[in-house]
Design brief:
By secondary structure, the protein is of the alpha+beta class. The chain is built from seven helices and four strands. The chain has a single domain, classed as 3-Layer(aba) Sandwich (NADH Oxidase). It starts with 11 loop residues before the first helix and ends in a 28-residue tail after the last strand.
Length: 195
């Protein structure tokens, strides 16, 4: 993850191709309930205004480098699309469809597929950006979701999964202390037949 970007613009056609590839990921029930809102140039300020606080922006040492990312791609998902899809005849037996007298609905989903599909799409975008020779960072949805979506004119019912920052690394990034943690590989993370 890159946390310090150069302000150099990224070709909008490249961004479009990367997003089109990101939307080819797995989709539960072929629901296709993932969408992206792309902010470029001066429009990225809308993201920072709503997803962070003035206090955080004034004291976070990484904010200047993050805020220079020329592209902020917002990963959105629609729980309603999945509820509707899983209420259709071929999926109704799952009990995960639109709320009804049987108690179905969002609360019936132990793991909401809409967030899984948004994560698959975000990962594909991150990999595509790297393959294109650019840098990226994923920022989770921690605050300001509803005001941000409203400011961007996103229809009701959509959720923000997170943001992917895209741009050219400026070489000023300070490695995260998290990198000192050992990777989860080998015998500690892969189990055969039982834990």
């Amino acid at each position: 993850m890159v946390r310090s970007f150069a302000p150099d613009l990224v070709d909008p056609d490249l961004v479009d191709r990367l997003l089109e590839d990101a939307l080819r990921g797995p989709s539960a029930g072929n629901t296709r309930g993932v969408a992206w809102v792309v902010l470029q140039g001066g429009n990225t300020a809308t993201y920072w205004e709503h997803a962070t606080t003035a206090d955080w922006r004034s004291r976070a040492r990484r904010y200047p480098g993050l805020s220079r990312a020329p592209v902020v791609a917002l990963s959105l998902c629609s729980p309603t699309a999945y509820l509707d899809r899983y209420g259709e005849a071929d999926k109704r037996h799952s009990g995960l469809g639109t709320s009804d007298s049987e108690g179905n609905g969002e609360s019936a989903w132990p793991i909401p597929y809409w967030f899984g599909d948004a994560a698959f799409s975000a990962l594909l975008l991150l990999l595509g950006v790297t393959a294109a020779g650019l840098g990226s960072a994923f920022l989770g949805n921690f605050r300001g979701e509803l005001p941000l979506l409203e400011a961007l004119g996103v229809p009701d019912g959509w959720r923000l999964f997170g943001a992917v920052l895209i741009g050219q690394p400026d070489g000023q990034d300070h490695p995260s202390p998290s990198l000192r943690r050992p990777p989860a590989v080998g015998a500690g993370a892969i189990h055969r037949s039982h834990w």
